[in-house]
Design brief:
This protein has 59 residues and is an all-alpha fold. Helix content is 44%, strand content 0%.
């Protein structure tokens, strides 16, 4: 989401941005809406990893 403020003071802008974002989260919570969080998964093929000297082996 993009939004703009009329203030040119960085501190004021951060306070306004925090307030707006918290209000958005409150609205989503009231409406029982969940948001996706950015995640990554790294899958390592054990056969390939066994032969790769850069992959640390777990004991």
């Amino acid at each position: 989401m993009y939004f703009f403020t009329k203030t040119t003071d960085w501190g004021d802008y951060l306070k306004i941005r925090e307030s707006v974002n918290l209000e958005i989260l409150d609205i989503l919570e009231r409406e029982a809406v969940s948001i996706a969080l950015p995640t990554r998964k790294l899958l390592i093929d054990r056969d390939v990893a066994a032969n790769d000297p850069f992959v640390q082996q777990q004991t």
